[in-house]
Amino acid sequence: MATIDALPPLRDVIRTHDLQARKSMGQNFLLDLNLTAKIARQAGDLTGCDVLEIGPGPGGLTRGLLSEGARHVLAIEKDARCLPALAEIAAAYPGRLTVLEGDALEIDPLSHLSPPIRVAANLPYNVGTELLVRWLTPKDWPPFWQSLTLMFQREVAERIVAQPGSKTYGRLAILAQWRAEARIVLQLPPEAFTPPPKVSSSVVHLNALPTPRYPADAAVLSRVVAAAFNQRRKMLRAALKGIAPDIEDRLQAAGLKPTDRAEQIPLEGFCALARAVAAK
After folding, report:
1. N or C: which end of the chain has fewer CB within 10 A?
2. Where do the domains of the chain lie, and which CATH numbers do they carry?
3. 159-215 confidence digits (pLDDT tens)
4. How far is CA 46 from its chain centroid?
Protein backbone atom coordinates (compact mmCIF):
# COMPACT_ATOMS: atom_id res chain seq x y z
CA MET A 1 0.00 0.00 0.00
CA ALA A 2 3.05 2.29 0.00
CA THR A 3 2.27 3.63 -3.47
CA ILE A 4 -1.25 4.57 -2.34
CA ASP A 5 0.18 6.26 0.73
CA ALA A 6 2.08 8.64 -1.55
CA LEU A 7 -1.27 10.03 -2.71
CA PRO A 8 -3.41 12.29 -0.52
CA PRO A 9 -6.15 10.81 1.70
CA LEU A 10 -9.50 10.79 -0.05
CA ARG A 11 -10.99 13.36 2.31
CA ASP A 12 -8.22 15.75 1.26
CA VAL A 13 -8.85 14.93 -2.40
CA ILE A 14 -12.54 15.75 -2.02
CA ARG A 15 -11.74 18.99 -0.22
CA THR A 16 -9.08 20.04 -2.75
CA HIS A 17 -11.27 19.41 -5.78
CA ASP A 18 -14.61 20.36 -4.15
CA LEU A 19 -16.11 16.94 -4.89
CA GLN A 20 -19.28 16.94 -2.85
CA ALA A 21 -21.36 13.90 -3.81
CA ARG A 22 -24.37 14.69 -5.97
CA LYS A 23 -27.62 12.83 -5.35
CA SER A 24 -28.68 13.49 -8.96
CA MET A 25 -25.75 11.34 -10.12
CA GLY A 26 -26.34 8.57 -7.59
CA GLN A 27 -23.04 9.35 -5.86
CA ASN A 28 -22.01 8.04 -2.45
CA PHE A 29 -18.23 8.00 -1.94
CA LEU A 30 -16.22 5.37 -0.07
CA LEU A 31 -13.32 7.16 1.60
CA ASP A 32 -11.66 4.32 3.56
CA LEU A 33 -8.79 3.04 1.40
CA ASN A 34 -8.53 -0.13 3.48
CA LEU A 35 -12.16 -0.84 2.60
CA THR A 36 -11.76 -0.07 -1.09
CA ALA A 37 -8.72 -2.38 -1.21
CA LYS A 38 -10.82 -5.08 0.48
CA ILE A 39 -13.48 -4.69 -2.20
CA ALA A 40 -10.80 -4.90 -4.89
CA ARG A 41 -9.56 -8.17 -3.39
CA GLN A 42 -13.05 -9.65 -3.81
CA ALA A 43 -12.45 -9.45 -7.56
CA GLY A 44 -9.72 -12.09 -7.22
CA ASP A 45 -6.18 -12.04 -8.58
CA LEU A 46 -6.03 -8.94 -10.78
CA THR A 47 -2.45 -9.31 -11.94
CA GLY A 48 -2.50 -9.84 -15.68
CA CYS A 49 -6.08 -8.52 -15.96
CA ASP A 50 -7.65 -5.38 -17.36
CA VAL A 51 -10.38 -4.00 -15.12
CA LEU A 52 -13.39 -1.94 -16.16
CA GLU A 53 -14.61 0.45 -13.46
CA ILE A 54 -17.79 2.51 -13.74
CA GLY A 55 -18.24 5.69 -11.72
CA PRO A 56 -14.87 5.92 -9.94
CA GLY A 57 -15.66 9.31 -8.37
CA PRO A 58 -12.59 10.53 -6.46
CA GLY A 59 -10.88 7.21 -7.11
CA GLY A 60 -11.02 5.20 -3.88
CA LEU A 61 -11.77 1.86 -5.56
CA THR A 62 -9.53 2.82 -8.49
CA ARG A 63 -6.59 3.08 -6.12
CA GLY A 64 -7.57 -0.22 -4.53
CA LEU A 65 -7.65 -1.99 -7.89
CA LEU A 66 -4.27 -0.59 -8.91
CA SER A 67 -2.67 -1.36 -5.56
CA GLU A 68 -3.95 -4.94 -5.83
CA GLY A 69 -2.02 -5.35 -9.07
CA ALA A 70 -4.50 -4.74 -11.90
CA ARG A 71 -2.59 -4.62 -15.18
CA HIS A 72 -4.74 -1.76 -16.46
CA VAL A 73 -7.87 0.00 -15.21
CA LEU A 74 -10.32 1.68 -17.56
CA ALA A 75 -12.45 4.07 -15.53
CA ILE A 76 -15.57 5.64 -17.04
CA GLU A 77 -16.68 8.79 -15.20
CA LYS A 78 -19.63 11.02 -16.09
CA ASP A 79 -18.83 13.75 -13.57
CA ALA A 80 -16.19 16.08 -15.03
CA ARG A 81 -15.43 17.42 -11.55
CA CYS A 82 -13.70 14.10 -10.72
CA LEU A 83 -11.31 14.12 -13.69
CA PRO A 84 -8.48 16.14 -12.05
CA ALA A 85 -8.44 13.79 -9.04
CA LEU A 86 -8.35 10.76 -11.34
CA ALA A 87 -5.55 12.37 -13.37
CA GLU A 88 -3.46 12.49 -10.20
CA ILE A 89 -3.96 8.74 -9.75
CA ALA A 90 -3.01 8.12 -13.38
CA ALA A 91 0.21 10.06 -12.83
CA ALA A 92 1.02 7.94 -9.76
CA TYR A 93 0.46 4.70 -11.74
CA PRO A 94 2.02 5.50 -15.15
CA GLY A 95 0.43 3.64 -18.05
CA ARG A 96 -1.99 1.70 -15.86
CA LEU A 97 -5.05 3.94 -15.69
CA THR A 98 -7.16 5.28 -18.55
CA VAL A 99 -10.07 7.58 -17.76
CA LEU A 100 -12.93 8.18 -20.18
CA GLU A 101 -15.39 10.98 -19.52
CA GLY A 102 -18.94 10.06 -20.41
CA ASP A 103 -22.01 7.96 -19.71
CA ALA A 104 -21.28 4.26 -19.17
CA LEU A 105 -24.60 3.43 -20.81
CA GLU A 106 -23.39 5.03 -24.05
CA ILE A 107 -19.67 4.12 -24.17
CA ASP A 108 -18.32 0.89 -25.68
CA PRO A 109 -15.27 0.12 -23.53
CA LEU A 110 -13.96 -2.90 -25.43
CA SER A 111 -11.61 -1.00 -27.74
CA HIS A 112 -9.76 0.17 -24.62
CA LEU A 113 -9.50 -3.25 -22.95
CA SER A 114 -7.54 -6.45 -23.54
CA PRO A 115 -8.57 -9.89 -22.23
CA PRO A 116 -8.73 -11.20 -19.62
CA ILE A 117 -11.18 -8.54 -18.41
CA ARG A 118 -12.90 -8.14 -15.07
CA VAL A 119 -15.44 -5.54 -14.01
CA ALA A 120 -15.29 -3.95 -10.56
CA ALA A 121 -17.36 -0.95 -9.54
CA ASN A 122 -19.21 0.90 -6.83
CA LEU A 123 -22.04 1.43 -9.27
CA PRO A 124 -24.10 4.61 -9.14
CA TYR A 125 -27.48 3.56 -7.75
CA ASN A 126 -29.38 5.06 -10.67
CA VAL A 127 -27.75 2.92 -13.40
CA GLY A 128 -26.50 -0.17 -11.55
CA THR A 129 -29.27 -2.61 -12.41
CA GLU A 130 -29.42 -1.55 -16.05
CA LEU A 131 -25.68 -2.09 -16.48
CA LEU A 132 -25.86 -5.50 -14.80
CA VAL A 133 -28.67 -6.63 -17.11
CA ARG A 134 -26.66 -5.51 -20.15
CA TRP A 135 -23.60 -7.44 -18.98
CA LEU A 136 -25.72 -10.56 -18.36
CA THR A 137 -27.52 -10.45 -21.72
CA PRO A 138 -24.93 -9.97 -24.49
CA LYS A 139 -25.60 -11.30 -27.95
CA ASP A 140 -22.91 -13.95 -27.56
CA TRP A 141 -21.79 -16.01 -24.57
CA PRO A 142 -19.24 -16.27 -22.94
CA PRO A 143 -19.18 -12.47 -22.45
CA PHE A 144 -16.21 -10.11 -22.62
CA TRP A 145 -15.84 -10.28 -18.82
CA GLN A 146 -14.57 -13.08 -16.61
CA SER A 147 -16.18 -11.72 -13.45
CA LEU A 148 -18.22 -8.84 -12.09
CA THR A 149 -17.58 -7.44 -8.61
CA LEU A 150 -20.26 -4.83 -8.07
CA MET A 151 -21.74 -2.83 -5.24
CA PHE A 152 -25.51 -2.42 -5.07
CA GLN A 153 -28.15 -1.41 -2.61
CA ARG A 154 -28.62 -4.48 -0.42
CA GLU A 155 -32.16 -5.03 -1.71
CA VAL A 156 -30.85 -5.31 -5.28
CA ALA A 157 -28.02 -7.64 -4.21
CA GLU A 158 -30.52 -9.92 -2.50
CA ARG A 159 -32.60 -10.06 -5.68
CA ILE A 160 -29.53 -11.20 -7.65
CA VAL A 161 -28.82 -14.20 -5.39
CA ALA A 162 -32.45 -15.00 -4.43
CA GLN A 163 -33.74 -18.56 -4.48
CA PRO A 164 -37.20 -19.88 -5.48
CA GLY A 165 -39.89 -19.34 -2.88
CA SER A 166 -38.53 -16.04 -1.60
CA LYS A 167 -40.15 -12.65 -2.11
CA THR A 168 -36.97 -11.32 -3.72
CA TYR A 169 -36.80 -14.12 -6.32
CA GLY A 170 -37.52 -12.80 -9.78
CA ARG A 171 -36.20 -11.88 -13.22
CA LEU A 172 -32.85 -10.58 -11.93
CA ALA A 173 -32.10 -13.85 -10.12
CA ILE A 174 -32.90 -15.86 -13.26
CA LEU A 175 -30.72 -13.68 -15.51
CA ALA A 176 -27.79 -13.77 -13.09
CA GLN A 177 -27.90 -17.42 -12.11
CA TRP A 178 -28.53 -18.84 -15.59
CA ARG A 179 -25.13 -17.76 -16.84
CA ALA A 180 -23.07 -17.00 -13.74
CA GLU A 181 -22.19 -18.03 -10.22
CA ALA A 182 -23.48 -15.21 -8.01
CA ARG A 183 -22.82 -14.59 -4.33
CA ILE A 184 -22.78 -11.71 -1.87
CA VAL A 185 -19.21 -11.27 -0.62
CA LEU A 186 -19.36 -8.11 1.50
CA GLN A 187 -21.92 -6.07 3.43
CA LEU A 188 -21.48 -2.33 4.01
CA PRO A 189 -23.46 -0.13 6.40
CA PRO A 190 -24.61 3.37 5.37
CA GLU A 191 -21.97 5.03 7.56
CA ALA A 192 -19.20 3.58 5.37
CA PHE A 193 -20.13 6.19 2.75
CA THR A 194 -19.99 9.95 2.42
CA PRO A 195 -22.74 11.06 2.49
CA PRO A 196 -24.40 8.02 4.15
CA PRO A 197 -27.21 6.65 1.96
CA LYS A 198 -30.54 5.71 3.51
CA VAL A 199 -29.96 2.01 2.73
CA SER A 200 -27.28 -0.59 3.37
CA SER A 201 -25.12 -1.84 0.50
CA SER A 202 -23.69 -5.18 -0.57
CA VAL A 203 -20.91 -6.28 -2.89
CA VAL A 204 -21.90 -9.08 -5.28
CA HIS A 205 -19.34 -11.21 -7.12
CA LEU A 206 -20.42 -13.00 -10.30
CA ASN A 207 -18.22 -15.46 -12.17
CA ALA A 208 -19.22 -16.06 -15.79
CA LEU A 209 -19.99 -19.70 -16.60
CA PRO A 210 -18.51 -21.01 -19.87
CA THR A 211 -22.02 -22.01 -20.99
CA PRO A 212 -25.46 -21.34 -19.52
CA ARG A 213 -26.47 -23.65 -16.69
CA TYR A 214 -29.36 -25.15 -18.71
CA PRO A 215 -30.09 -24.97 -22.45
CA ALA A 216 -32.59 -22.32 -23.55
CA ASP A 217 -32.94 -19.58 -26.14
CA ALA A 218 -32.00 -16.35 -24.37
CA ALA A 219 -34.72 -14.23 -26.00
CA VAL A 220 -37.47 -16.78 -25.31
CA LEU A 221 -36.31 -17.29 -21.72
CA SER A 222 -36.29 -13.54 -21.13
CA ARG A 223 -39.80 -13.17 -22.57
CA VAL A 224 -41.21 -16.04 -20.52
CA VAL A 225 -39.59 -14.89 -17.28
CA ALA A 226 -40.70 -11.27 -17.77
CA ALA A 227 -44.31 -12.32 -18.41
CA ALA A 228 -44.35 -14.70 -15.44
CA PHE A 229 -43.00 -12.20 -12.92
CA ASN A 230 -44.91 -9.19 -14.26
CA GLN A 231 -47.97 -10.92 -12.82
CA ARG A 232 -46.27 -12.96 -10.12
CA ARG A 233 -49.42 -13.35 -8.01
CA LYS A 234 -51.26 -15.07 -10.83
CA MET A 235 -51.02 -18.75 -11.71
CA LEU A 236 -48.70 -19.44 -14.61
CA ARG A 237 -51.53 -20.40 -16.97
CA ALA A 238 -52.99 -16.92 -16.52
CA ALA A 239 -49.74 -14.95 -16.35
CA LEU A 240 -48.42 -16.61 -19.52
CA LYS A 241 -51.59 -16.80 -21.62
CA GLY A 242 -50.16 -14.21 -24.00
CA ILE A 243 -47.06 -16.33 -24.67
CA ALA A 244 -48.84 -19.17 -26.50
CA PRO A 245 -52.50 -20.16 -27.00
CA ASP A 246 -51.75 -23.68 -25.73
CA ILE A 247 -49.67 -22.52 -22.76
CA GLU A 248 -51.13 -25.15 -20.41
CA ASP A 249 -49.91 -27.93 -22.70
CA ARG A 250 -46.47 -26.33 -22.90
CA LEU A 251 -46.28 -25.92 -19.13
CA GLN A 252 -47.07 -29.60 -18.70
CA ALA A 253 -44.52 -30.51 -21.37
CA ALA A 254 -41.94 -28.65 -19.29
CA GLY A 255 -42.94 -30.58 -16.19
CA LEU A 256 -44.64 -27.57 -14.58
CA LYS A 257 -48.09 -27.24 -13.06
CA PRO A 258 -50.29 -24.61 -14.71
CA THR A 259 -51.49 -23.66 -11.22
CA ASP A 260 -47.96 -22.85 -9.96
CA ARG A 261 -46.82 -19.27 -9.56
CA ALA A 262 -43.61 -17.75 -10.90
CA GLU A 263 -41.82 -17.55 -7.54
CA GLN A 264 -42.18 -21.33 -7.12
CA ILE A 265 -40.37 -22.20 -10.36
CA PRO A 266 -36.63 -22.94 -10.21
CA LEU A 267 -34.24 -21.81 -12.90
CA GLU A 268 -34.21 -25.27 -14.49
CA GLY A 269 -38.02 -25.15 -14.78
CA PHE A 270 -38.00 -21.79 -16.54
CA CYS A 271 -35.38 -23.07 -18.99
CA ALA A 272 -37.49 -26.17 -19.67
CA LEU A 273 -40.50 -23.92 -20.28
CA ALA A 274 -38.50 -21.71 -22.65
CA ARG A 275 -37.57 -24.82 -24.66
CA ALA A 276 -41.21 -25.95 -24.71
CA VAL A 277 -42.38 -22.51 -25.88
CA ALA A 278 -39.73 -22.42 -28.59
CA ALA A 279 -40.66 -25.88 -29.88
CA LYS A 280 -42.96 -26.06 -32.88
Report:
1. C
2. 2-208 (3.40.50.150), 218-278 (1.10.8.100)
3. 999 999 999 999 999 999 999 999 999 999 999 998 898 999 999 999 999 999 999
4. 18
